[in-house]
Design goal:
With 146 residues, the protein is α+β, with helices and mostly antiparallel strands. It contains four helices and five strands, in the order E-H-E-E-H-E-H-H-E. The protein has a five-stranded antiparallel sheet, with helices on both faces.
Length: 146
């Protein structure tokens, strides 16, 4: 299980635009994006993304992240009429240890909009999800209309 962060190139807040954020969030929440890995929770911030991912038997972390970042970049470029890199190269990962409390880490991930002052109540932020919510098979329950 990994805590992941991918950052937008130049830290430009491209996901501050609701249409762009909704398009990227749809791709990042899509089960097909993660192959046989399972995304437990995620949040899309204006200039970065965090996720908590459990690798499947046939997945590597590098392949999962390459696929996710590539699919999100293609979707965003289509929406914006642009081309080129969306993300900084690479990503940050931290493997969780057995003693790490998964729900505490998940709360940390999804509370990012609160800590950043984007909202005063997490439910008001549209670009996040956690499997513990029980909506839409644990995916896209936190997506708003954009």
């Amino acid at each position: 299980m990994y805590l992941l962060t991918a950052v937008v190139a130049g830290r430009h807040p491209v996901f501050a635009d609701p249409t762009t954020a909704a398009g990227a969030a749809r791709v990042l929440a899509d089960r097909d994006t993660w192959l046989d890995a399972r995304l437990l929770c995620w949040v899309l911030m204006p200039d970065h993304w965090h996720g908590l991912l459990v690798l499947g038997n046939g997945s590597t972390l590098a392949a999962c992240m390459q696929r996710a970042k590539g699919r999100a970049a293609r979707a965003v470029n289509r929406l914006r009429g642009t081309s080129g890199a969306l993300w900084m190269p690479g990503y940050h990962d931290r493997a969780l240890r057995r003693e790490d409390d998964v729900r505490t880490v998940a709360r940390y991930v999804v509370a990012n909009p609160l800590r950043a002052g984007l909202v005063t109540r997490l439910g008001d932020y549209p670009y996040w999800d956690a499997v513990w919510l029980g909506g839409a098979d644990g995916y896209a329950a936190g997506l708003g209309d954009g």
